[in-house]
Amino acid sequence: MKSSKNKNSYYLPTPTYWPIIGSIALFFIFIGVANWLHKNTIGIYLFFAGFLILLLMIYGWFSTIIRENRAGLLNNPQVDRSFRLGMLWFIFTEVIFFGVFFAALFYARFYAVPVLGGALTGASTHQFLWPNFHASWPLLKTPDPIQFSGPQSVMEVWGIPAINTLILLSSGVTITIAHWGILKKNRAQMIFFQAMTIILGVIFISMQAHEYWTAYAIKSLRLDSGIYGATFFMLTGFHALHVTIGIIALTVILWRLAKNDFNSSHYFGFEAVSWYWHFVDAIWLGLFIIVYWL
Q1: One CATH from 3.40.50.2000, 1.20.1050.10, 1.20.1440.230, 1.10.287.70 for 13-73
Q2: What does pTM read for this prediction?
């Protein structure tokens, strides 16, 4: 629309190449990970090349949206509804994404492993393939220990995972207080507690990295340590990726708060990131209960 001041107009963004660049970045990342897991030297270079391209895409796309917002192009009710619906659908797809991984864990834990152990009447898998295998969870001894050696021990629930749970739940509180600061027009409150949320997120990732080092170096828990190791790193690893994305988004919002880009009437950028962060909190709570505790 020609006039950015007409609140009844709907702003239609100009065509952009950032989604294409993001797709290229994801292509390099996933090809790199696949080669990295198969110990191909090129894998690590492809992964980091894709990661750098992804950072470029995030910076460029965020910059475009911020410029549009500062120009007043996004401040009308219809655009606001579109953004809210878009964010809700995005979070819904993320719920399905993690739901599939949880389903894979449940399938392995409550069906596949027991069947391999001979639990299902009439199944010959246990009898002919691995007659000495005894099903248990967490799976420390795999059906074929020569090919897939199991971990030495399981991950403790009341160590780093419990601390990380408190950290993430606390970050949910701090971002809510920052939200209240925007509504009350309290600049110091919103900036301080937004920064606290970022710090708590960084601490969480640091603790997670230390836990991964413990898993690999001390417990011999790896991606190839049977289904227990595969599901553990699949679920916690993708969650850590989402936390990292959340930290980047929170940092951008902190910068925008410092630049006075939001007010008590227009602050959906902050609200969208806070929704995402609460989603990350909820997923971790499920991980803590299902992966670590039960």
Answers
A1: 1.10.287.70
A2: 0.87
Distance CA 107, CA 109 (A): 6
pLDDT (tens digit per residue) in 51-102 = 999 999 989 988 888 888 888 777 778 888 888 999 999 999 999 999 999 9
CATH for 77-293 is 1.20.120.80
